[in-house]
Protein 1
Amino acid sequence: MPDDFPQLAQIESSNPMAEGRTLFGLDAEALSALMLEAGQPAFRGRQLAEALYRQRIADLDAITTLPKALRQRLIAEGWQVGRPTIAQVFQSNDGTERYLVELEDGLTVETVWMPEGDDGEVGDDSDGEISQTLGAPGPDFRTWETNKPQSAQKIVRRATICVSSQIGCIVNCQFCLTAKLGLQRNLTAGEIAGQVLAVFDRHAVEVGRDRVNLVFMGMGEPFLNYDSFIAAVRLLVREAGLSPRRMTVSTSGIVPGILRFAAEQPELRPRLAVSLNAPNDTIRTEIMPINRKWPIAEVIDATRQIPLRSHERITFEYVLLGGVTDQLTHARELARQLRRSGLAAKVNLIAWNPGPDIPYSTPQPEAVEAFRSALISAGIPAYLRKPRGRDIYAACGQLKRTVES
Ligand code: SAH
Ligand code: SF4
């Protein structure tokens, strides 16, 4: 690590909550090992995994597949489920909900629920809708209506959950409110996966029927907490039964993380979004100082190592800052960069969401549209991400544990 980012050296390994008598976060194998150690048959571990991740039971005493005596003994020894809980809810008038999720040490982290999603992942077949519209009539897709009973089994509800990977962030992008917090600590795998299951419970999500996309785009930089992030994905895929094709992780361009990600098994690897945010190194360094360490060419080279699945594209996120990154010349330069990369790419444009004391401005709607058209004319698929929950500080880059709504 060069001297200009000494903090990065320490944080990948810091994981203060990794030890302790918390069951949530352990996979079936670890739970079986624990049961064997306690003189129990290994299948008790699989029963525990089923209870924690499929039945979503958050209280050890309520796991009735385990004999009562065993439950009581585990509790007496200090074991608990220890899943994060939703402590506070902020509701937006567009249906978005922002949660303060409480962790075992009393700290809180933020998670966001968006009925229907944010349109950020459209156009890439992540819902399998493209194939469905071409074939036989597909299921009836509905926006989330929690209080209405689902009369027909084939009605599919859709939503997106935005998940945090750290409390705060150390990357210091100049336009992001989360950056103002600095890094407080990494989350454990259980704390990352636990946000998802706590929100599933709140909205009575039925895995296998409902179309819920996960985006690891909340607080923090997932690739600076790589081990916990990928362990959380493993729990969500293997134990909770979710598909990694409906998960997208966003990175600010941490090259060693991208390279590790490229080596993951395809059946465990989410989609990747890279926060490019600028068309060249000069502007990117100004708004994302991390670019001095990993400039655009290195980020793109690393991204090229990822073996893509069929229909998969790499998403490049691009925050439009009024007057700074939203000019037509920027769009053309960005298109050239991406074409030159040879990557199957698409661009998600995000109009900057304001935050107090951040010296940028939102782009004019005409500038946004002109930018998008210029990318499309240059052959780069480009989408505009709808701002969701701006009124409750739930939109991209606004997560800072703001308690007034
Ligand atoms: N740390 C990761 C993921 C979380 S940020 C990353 O940076 O990729 C998720 C997205 O929100 C990123 O693309 C980031 O560039 C964008 N973002 C941050 N602050 C924003 C703001 N104020 N308005 C709009 N987008 C913002
Ligand atoms: Fe961290 Fe992402 Fe915000 Fe940058 S944009 S400070 S990497 S959360």
Protein 2
Amino acid sequence: MTRGGLAAKVQETRLWSRLMALAAIGGTAKGGVCRLALTAEDGAARVRLANWATARGFTVSEDAIGNIYVRRKGTDPTLPPVMTGSHLDTQPTGGKFDGVYGVLAGFEVLEALEDAGVQTRRAIEVVGWMNEEGARFQPGCMGSGVFAGAMPLEAMRAVADKTGATVGASIDALPTVGVSRDFGFPVHAYVEAHIEQGPRLEAAGDTIGIVTGIQGARWFAVEITGSEAHAGTTPRAQRKDALMAALDGIQALRAVMTDPDDQVRFTVGRMEVGPGSPNTVPGRVFFTIDFRHPDAATVQRLGDLVAPTLRAAAGPCGIAITETFTGPPVAFDPLVIEAVTDATKALGYKHHALPSGANHDAKFLARVCPTGMIFIPCLGGVSHNEAESATPEDCTAGARVLAETLLALAQ
Ligand code: GLV
Ligand code: MN
Ligand code: MN
Ligand code: MN
């Protein structure tokens, strides 16, 4: 098939209608999506994808950590497959594109191959990685982390959400969507399409981002233990106020977690105060820290300051700090970057190369096979927000680049 021939088979209306069909599963009143990992909504999205896949003759399978795979056969079953995909779960106030776009762009490529009657030597597998977001179960990128051997399967299946429900029990409660499988090595290459989730492509007026790698990240869970006391009577010197200790620690970290070129990303995204009564001094505070930076040495140095800085600020309170995720920066494979670049140029899209600020499953796949990513713009760079938006044209452009890239890699 000539270059661009497969891209021409990518259908904008089909891709868009699938995006909107999945956006309705967990759709919110404000136009966003709440489809937390392994909930009934996530299960329903998986069933929908599996139904589309089997209707088209593709094979569906799932593994012990809840990743779902849609496979289109190659002509040589002895060759390792090419993989693509992303995730079906969302943030609690997530949008219609973060994650699901990469899965459906991959699925659209399988359909385009069918429509074109093109056989590839290698099988192509579209994967929905379980719990990329890390909103319900920490850490995120759990399905790809286990797949890549970076997280232990049994320990991850034992992770519980706020209500005590475990990953393992939640996977077992999902509707079955395909045959059970092993993780499935080796993998020839992995390419993930995603909205940029930042403002750079839009600002440059470019349609395609050729992703060079992913910045480093360290996540922490912090538990501060004080002592409950009467708010009206307890003098300051006698208080062990867990919330004041948390605030002092976070304030001290804000001073440390800065840099002149605004590359440090420091977020306290979740905080629980116990017992949560207006007139009781808080005896317990739990909060999370998400810290990221593109440079490995800075990830190490600033990340290492988290525990001592919080401890120094804890005063009379007890403090327990757990590092729940450690991910050094990742550089993508030059051959995959080149394949994406060639496809983008052949299709004539305006593009530039950029690193990813957000985490992606590609970060773990990069440990086990040559990996790369394709970004498309999103409105205002807004993501992890119900207002997240991308145009049908850009979604199609990304799927076309993905199609030509996968075709080249699967021959
Ligand atoms: C998930 O979306 C992340 O980048 O943390
Ligand atoms: Mn995502
Ligand atoms: Mn996300
Ligand atoms: Mn993400």
